[in-house]
Amino acid sequence: MSVQQYNRIVLKLSGEAMAGEKGFGLSPEIIKSVANQVKEVVDLGVEVAVVVGGGNIWRGKIGSEMGMDRATADYMGMLATVMNSLALQDSLEKQGVETRVLSSIEMRQVAEPYIRRRAIRHLEKKRVVIFAAGTGNPYFSTDTTAALRAAEIEADVILMAKNNVDGVYSADPKTDSAAIKYEELSYFEVIQQGLQVMDSTASTLCMDNDIPLVVFSIMENGNIKRAVLGDKIGTVVRRTL
């Protein structure tokens, strides 16, 4: 029988994961599935924080390529993460899971301002906390937000849920049939080999603070629970092997 491995987790959801196969916008079925999986983990007594990307609505990189000021494009991306966070909050609360959205950009009508101690207190009360608006600063990704918040709240692990891949591969498995799936990696190997797990800032932050990372597919129901129970799914990245 599997034994619960983690007591406090940060779940990192890409914006694309919220869109499903469409690749843009919001998929009600996917959001409901994610909420179901989060509820399963909450019912185990695990404290859950979530960081959601915004790539299904807006990507700062696209804005930059259009000639838009990078900081402006990134702020637009942060607002997209707030929309995703509110959608996930609504779905969780419909299933009876008490949830709070904490935003790095103040918008008191829709979310609480991010305060570290408040976030920890919500978690201790077994509320799901969703961190919105990234770090509140341009030039930082939501991967870096996940690493930063995990360090701040002293999370045991970051669970990185993907919608188009079930772990870390040596190359893109969709275009390279010889791509090898890794079961375990060190952060140094991720950085050295340039593997597209998370950006280098986030990887370094996780490595320096000894925060393990589990990369897995969100598309299979129950995978978040399996990851929490320590089942061998996806790829585990640690400071040292």
UniProtKB/TrEMBL annotation:
Enzyme class, first EC level, given as a word: transferase
Q: Where in the cell is it found?
A: Cytoplasm
Q: Which UniProt keywords apply?
A: Allosteric enzyme, ATP-binding, Cytoplasm, Kinase, Nucleotide-binding, Pyrimidine biosynthesis, Transferase
- Give this protein's Gene Ontology molecular function annotations: ATP binding; UMP kinase activity
Q: What is its EC number?
A: 2.7.4.22
Q: Where is ATP bound in this sequence? A: 12-15, 55, 59, 163, 169, 172
Write out the ranges of the annotated region (Involved in allosteric activation by GTP): 20-25
One GO cellular component assignment for this chain's record is: cytoplasm
Q: Which residues form a coiled coil?
A: none
Any one of the GO BP annotations: UDP biosynthetic process
The leader peptide range reads: none
Q: How is its activity regulated?
A: Allosterically activated by GTP. Inhibited by UTP.
Q: Its annotated pathway?
A: Pyrimidine metabolism; CTP biosynthesis via de novo pathway; UDP from UMP (UMPK route): step 1/1
Domain (Aspartate/glutamate/uridylate kinase): residue spans on this chain: 7-217
Q: Known InterPro entries for this protein?
A: AceGlu_kinase-like_sf, Asp/Glu/Uridylate_kinase, Uridylate_kinase, Uridylate_kinase_bac
| Catalytic activity line of the entry | UMP + ATP = UDP + ADP
Residues bound to UMP? 54, 74, 135-142
**Matches recorded under NCBIfam families:** pyrH_bact
Q: Which PANTHER family match?
A: URIDYLATE KINASE, URIDYLATE KINASE PUMPKIN, CHLOROPLASTIC
| Described function | Catalyzes the reversible phosphorylation of UMP to UDP.
Homology family: Belongs to the UMP kinase family.
Q: How does it assemble?
A: Homohexamer.
This chain belongs to which protein, by name? Uridylate kinase
| Species the sequence originates in | Planococcus salinus
